[in-house]
């Protein structure tokens, strides 16, 4: 029961649990024991009250990154977490589509070795013109 509660707390983005024997197996059996405490503390810090991003936004970013890696574990984890934080199916689809579009243009620009400084100038000029 404790493992279920801790896993649920992690999936919901909650922190404040003690790193001990009760850590979910997907953490404790996959990460070096000597580094687990600090890894979980870093993870909790990004989910603390001081975090600049709200929980739903963090999970939508997680879904987008997971789709690009690709990682089935991360996709499942962040999708379930995003839903728990109130993300709609439309928001999840859009996060994945934005990730795909970003990957598309990254592939084109990098593959064609488009000049980065020229890109920055063009972008900045376009932004200045729109303001």
TrEMBL record:
Domain (Carboxymuconolactone decarboxylase-like) spans: 41-113
Keyword Oxidoreductase among UniProt keywords: yes
Top-rank taxon, per record? Bacteria
Pfam families cross-referenced by the UniProt entry: CMD (PF02627)
Molecular function (GO) terms listed? peroxiredoxin activity
Stored PANTHER family: ALKYL HYDROPEROXIDE REDUCTASE AHPD, BLR3452 PROTEIN
- The answer, when asked if Oxidoreductase is one of the entry's keywords, is yes
Q: Name the chain's protein.
A: AhpD family alkylhydroperoxidase
InterPro entries, A to Z: AhpD-like, AhpD_core, CMD-like
Q: Which UniProt keywords apply?
A: Oxidoreductase, Peroxidase, Signal
Signal peptide interval = 1-20
């Amino acid at each position: 029961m404790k493992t279920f509660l801790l896993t649920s707390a992690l999936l919901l983005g909650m922190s404040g649990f003690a790193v001990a024997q009760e850590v979910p197996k997907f953490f404790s059996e996959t990460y070096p024991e000597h580094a687990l405490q600090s890894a979980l503390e870093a993870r909790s810090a990004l989910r603390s009250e001081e975090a600049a991003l709200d929980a739903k936004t963090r999970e939508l970013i997680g879904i987008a990154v997971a789709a690009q890696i690709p990682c089935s574990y991360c996709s499942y984890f962040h999708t379930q977490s995003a839903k728990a934080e109130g993300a709609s199916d439309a928001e999840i689809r859009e996060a994945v589509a934005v990730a795909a579009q970003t990957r598309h243009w990254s592939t084109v620009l990098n593959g064609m070795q488009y000049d980065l400084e020229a890109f920055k100038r063009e972008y900045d000029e376009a932004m200045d013109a729109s303001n």
